[in-house]
Amino acid sequence: MHKSASDRILLVVMLALVVLFIAWPIGSMLIRSVQVPVPLSTARLADMTRAALAALPDDRGTTLRARWAAEAAPRPRMEAIAAAFTLNGLEVPWDRTAAFDRQIPAAEQALAGLAPDLRARVTGDLPLAVAMLHKRAVLVHLAGEALAPAMREALRSGQTTTMGIDHYSRVAREHRLRAAGLNALLLATTTTVITTMLAFLAAFGISRGLVVGAGLARFGLLVPLVSPPVVVATAAVLLFGRNGVVTHDLLDRTLGWTDAAHDNLYGLGGVLVAQVLSFLPAAFIVFDNLFTRPDGRLDEAAASAGASPWQRFRHVTLPMAQPGIVRAATLVFILSMTDFGNPMVIGRDLPVLAGVLYDEMIGFHNTAFAAAIAVWLIVPALAIALALNRIGGRRRFTSGFGGGDGGGNRQAAMAPPPALRRGFSLLVWSVIAATGVIYATIIAGAFVKVWGRDWGLTPHHFTAVEAVPGFVSSVVGITPVWTSLVVAGIAAPLGGLLAVIAAYLAERHRSTLTECMALIILLPAILPGVVFGIGYLTAFNAPFGIRALSLNGTHAVLVLNILFGNMFVGVLAGRALLRRIDRSIDEAAAALGASPVQRIRHVVLPVMRHAAILGALYVFVDGLSTVSAVVFLQGPDIGLAAVAILNAAEGTYYGAACAMSVAILIIVFTVMAAIRLVERGRLPARAAGTNPAAAMGAA
């Protein structure tokens, strides 16, 4: 389609937005990860100190320099003498590693032993050395805006930055980081194998009609997608922890079979169970899409050739499913590697690399090192994906048929053995039953006063009233849920709208620019949320070097992060929809003189209503449940529900964590049900959305 001037303006604006709020944060994170602080040389530090002293008004710098030198205590004076020696190109003649009570007289003796001209030069630099070593912070404060921001920071810290891989190599050098990395690799590998296998079998069984109640089973497997973070880990602690209903009340106190203090789910096994149940829905979606439209003629041909069900599965299904296996395994591996919530809640003494990243950011504000760890977290997954793709690339599989319809009917006609149906049904419904127990536990935990100690019921975990007098919780009530609801409620409609616009531009105005825009939009889908979160922290701390423009700790940065981090779903859905719609709709609207805004409002949005709703819903759900992308961005006065749930669960305030989780689930399912009802009510009007004349008449 021919692009008008207004089309070009819209494209430039959209491209600028995705570059500013997606590409720039990711690039900032990568740059920050290779910025290594190094001490300023003595000469450079002296030059900066001279400049700062000269910037003070009314010759105040000279007065302060003399006063600071006269008031210097013996140890600062000794250190200043050593610096003055260095400034004059002299070697420090005493042992700088000796005790200070020995260095102080040695420094005075060395100064007195210099030739008169050298002693005069060194003594003349002593006031500067005292200011340079011990009064930099005061000097920066006094100079204020007279110094450039970069110079103020360098003079205050005595450091500058250079590019290097020190943060990356530190992971390999330090034992605790190597141990955390190995734990993360072991956990991620095990989780990936188990989760991918379960998701593959579940999707295969449901799509092939091998599971009783396949439709309900599909819904049951996907429910955890909308749940808040660490729900599974929290429920596992309530059931199988030291005070768990099963381990403590049943197996220990009632039956006397175990000692709950030692025989519980804490550690690697508990984290593994939590991650498998948490990440199974994401992997299931990959395989469910893969098996949704099968070509049954392949199985029919194999069966006609005398292949047994196992041979058909091994030589037909598995090879054709290989791309989905690679995608699902990569997805689960990245999710496991970047998960710090489940190990924090149920891992206890199991250090993992994502947990180290969390500690570095929350405890030490070490953004550069945390950024390097974030990159380390995704390197193994990308390496595995490339290796699997390389191995799979040597073999090509094609159906050889036209991809016609009716494959599923042929497969249904090939009745599976009853034992196979029982096996698949048992597997899938066991997973769903475990999920049901998890959510039942969370609901119960929201109303129990103190789990494992006081089984009385209370509604006060949802209110501002303390549920148990004297039991001090870090969270009182579900106030963080309303904060998250506001943030997600703002981000969702904007995300749906921008996703539709981006999809329209990428699909109807294909060019190098639009393809670049679409690729940038997909980056958050490839990278874990923690990378995107650290990227926003580095990019918007002082945008363009101007601290007045900082967004960190505000509602705005949370909305932008959630919006641009999740709009890719609406873009993918919108592009897929537009490929099935004739371009003549847009051409007719343009021929009638509609501007791009009018075409988007009266033609594109009605036609792409479902893509916009899907995109907005995904942004909304993620805005309520995401942790890794926003945990480093919320300010001290802004508490999001997902982060509050994580902190409450880690602090063993399980009632508060369960109450907030239940509140989020109620909100999400209510919104989904409302959207469903609205969509059903608009079914008869769908045809009008594809009528260009009707659309332009409305304009």
Please provide the count of β strands: 4
Strand order of the largest sheet: 1-2
Content of β-strand: under 5%
How many DSSP helices? 33
Structural class: mainly alpha
- What gap, in angstroms, lies between the N and C termini? 21 Å
Instruction: State the low-pLDDT regions, or none.
Output: 399-413, 683-699
Shape: globular
Helix content: over 70%
Mean pLDDT: 83
Q: Please give the largest β-sheet.
A: 2 strands, antiparallel
What is the alpha-carbon Rg in Å?
A: 32 Å
What would you note in describing this structure?
It is found in: Cell membrane. Keywords: Membrane, Transmembrane, Transmembrane helix, Transport. 70% of the residues lie in helices and 2% in strands. With 699 residues, the protein is mainly alpha-helical. It has a two-stranded antiparallel ribbon. β3 and β4 (454-457) form a beta hairpin. α23 (479-508) runs parallel beside α27. The longest helix has 33 residues, at 175-207. 43% of the residues are buried.
